[in-house]
Amino acid sequence: MRFMIIVPASPGTEQGQTGTQQQFADMQAYNEQMLKAGVFVDGQGLHPSARGARLTWEDGDWVVTDGPFAEAKELVAGFTIIDVSSRAEAIEWLRRWPTSCAPEPGLALELRQVFAPEDFGDGLTPELREREEQMRAEAARNAARG
């Protein structure tokens, strides 16, 4: 089961603050623990919303709204993907999140399960599943090239 840990943005991350040397070291140690346990898939920080855009479907067309966006509480500053055997195991890993990197008071890390092909039932036909697997393999090759 794959899960995404969603890291909320804060006023600091929205101003472009990336963390202290200690926070980087703590997060790297945490990620190394997950890597050694075989559960770490990926993890990245995101630039502030000022460098982003939102696209809204309106009247048959996409409308682009450039950042920054209000309500930092609703923004994402980063994510980690883990592959574990259960929701309980995912929560246990989340409990180990470095305290130096804990969200500011009033903000929370969020855990969401990632859909797997079997979650889609008959709507995802064998042909579509095969194409999905091919696309994921191609994406992995692209990622390996950097």
Structure write-up:
- This protein is α+β, with helices and mostly antiparallel strands and 146 residues long.
- It folds into 2 domains: 2-114, Alpha-Beta Plaits; 116-146, no CATH class.
- It contains 4 helices and 6 strands.
- The radius of gyration is 18 Å and the shape is globular.
- The protein starts with a strand and ends with a helix.
- It comes from Terrabacter aerolatus.
- Residues 1-99 form the YCII-related domain.
Layout of SSEs?
Layout: E1 2-8, H1 11-14, H2 21-37, E2 40-45, E3 53-58, E4 61-66, E5 76-83, H3 87-95, E6 110-113, H4 126-145
Antiparallel strand pairs: 1-5, 1-6, 2-5, 3-4
Helix-residue proportion: 25-40%
In DSSP terms, counting alpha (H) and pi (I) runs of 4 or more, how many helices?
4
Q: Please give the CATH architecture of the largest domain.
A: 2-Layer Sandwich
CATH H-level homologous superfamily name of the largest domain: Dimeric alpha+beta barrel
- Class inferred from helices and paired strands: alpha+beta
Say what the CATH topology of the largest domain is.
Alpha-Beta Plaits
Radius of gyration: 18 Å
Strand line-up of the largest beta sheet = 2-5-1-6
Order of helices and strands: EHHEEEEHEH
Low-confidence stretches: none
Number of domain units: 2
Distance between the termini: 26 Å
Query: At the first level of CATH, what is the class of the largest domain?
Result: Alpha Beta
Quantity of strands, as a count: 6
Q: Please tell me the overall pLDDT.
A: 93
Main sheet characteristics: 4 strands, antiparallel
Shape: globular
Strand content bin = 25-35%
Protein name: YCII-related domain-containing protein
Domain YCII-related: 1-99
Family: Belongs to the YciI family.
Pfam families: YCII
